[in-house]
Write a structure and sequence with these properties.
Helix 1 crosses helix 2 (53-71) and helix 5 (219-238) packs parallel to helix 6. The protein folds into two domains: 2-158, no CATH class; 170-282, no CATH class. The strands form three sheets. A six-stranded antiparallel β-sheet has the order 1-6-5-2-3-4. It has a four-stranded mixed β-sheet with strand order 8-7-9-10, covered by helices on one side. The protein is α+β, with helices and mostly antiparallel strands. Helix content is 35%, strand content 22%. Strand 7 (170-175) and strand 8 (181-183) form a beta hairpin.
Length: 319
């Protein structure tokens, strides 16, 4: 399994100008290759023999974009991301304050002394946590791109997937607004309502100031990511599996939190070898956990009461 992470680059002014020039060149070559592919009677990858590795990468990127867009039924357009797909990750060289060095080859075809220039980067907590896993290795290839005037590098980490351990007990998880995650072992997560209110207030303040929010993950998803990691670790330490609603069968325009939590749990469980059982989402909130009776009128806000056996409990814990 290959996981990708985004790290911030710290180029000097001269190197930043060079990166911008390479991005413009890459986009220009990509546009030319896309037009050649789209105008051809039999679309194929244009020949880049003798034009250098940088041109070849731009042509291959255009061919991949053409195949993906035409397969989806869209018209091929320009390159969306401002990137340079010709970087390599290396270990620290001179400055000890940086963790990674990205070697950008540019338009040269050799790795000689003048084959490229180096840009420093720093790792973050999530990347270090993944590298600490047994057998995890940092990939040499990388991708440099620009976003909001800042430069970033996308690095990949190859993690071996362990075998899934057999389990006999399960930890059930339910997502709600009053508690981010409710588990069957009695754990209640953080209340998401104050988090959502602070996020709305911050977004409204930034809109009045004419600025945009520069967060990759919303505060709600940050809380759910921590809860997913904690749930998988608890299941691994106790030798149990995780049972949750199938994220593929949840409503896309409504149950965003449950889908994000389920996808994150599936990813972390696959890395750590924890068993996961996906359950069909329909009627999970209106089914009695004691007798199994299904009735739409069982749940009233945060309280669940079964009209058949009289079982009364918290609705999220029952789910």
């Amino acid at each position: 399994m290959i996981l990708s992470y985004k790290c911030k680059l710290f180029p000097s002014r001269v190197k930043a100008d060079t990166l911008a020039a390479l991005v413009d060149l890459f986009q220009r070559l990509h546009s030319i290759a896309t037009q050649q592919i789209a105008s051809a009677d039999r679309p194929r990858l244009p020949s880049c023999r003798g034009k250098g590795e940088f041109v070849g990468r731009a042509y291959r990127r255009a061919w991949i974009d053409y195949q993906r867009t035409t397969k989806a039924g869209h018209t091929p357009g320009q390159l969306k991301a401002e990137l340079i797909d010709s970087a390599e990750i290396q270990r620290p060289r001179k400055a000890t304050s940086f963790d990674l060095w990205c070697m950008v080859r540019g338009t040269t075809t050799t790795r000689a002394k003048n084959g490229g220039f180096y840009v420093p980067a720093r790792k973050h907590r999530a990347l270090n946590r993944t590298l600490a896993l047994p057998g995890a290795t940092l990939n040499e290839s990388a991708e440099i791109f620009r976003k909001n005037g800042k430069w970033y590098v996308r690095v990949g980490v190859t993690v071996p997937v362990p075998e899934e351990q057999p389990v006999t007990e399960w930890i059930g998880c339910d997502i709600g607004a009053r508690a981010a995650v409710t588990r069957s072992d009695g754990y209640h997560g953080l209340d998401l309502r104050p988090v959502l209110q602070r996020s709305r207030n911050r977004r409204a303040t930034l809109q009045k100031q004419g600025r945009e929010e520069s967060r990759e993950l919303s505060p709600q998803r940050q809380v759910l990511a921590r809860e997913a990691r904690q749930t998988v670790l608890v299941a691994q330490q106790s030798g149990r599996g995780v049972a949750l609603e199938d994220p593929k069968r949840l409503i896309r325009w409504k149950q965003h939190a449950a889908r994000f939590f389920g996808q994150r749990v599936l990813l972390l469980a696959a890395i750590l070898g924890v068993a996961v059982q996906v359950i069909s989402p329909p009627y999970t909130s209106t089914t009695c956990s004691r007798c199994g009776h299904v009735e739409p009128g069982h749940r009233h806000r945060a309280t669940f009461r079964c009209w058949q056996c009289g079982f009364t409990h918290n609705a999220e814990v029952n789910a």
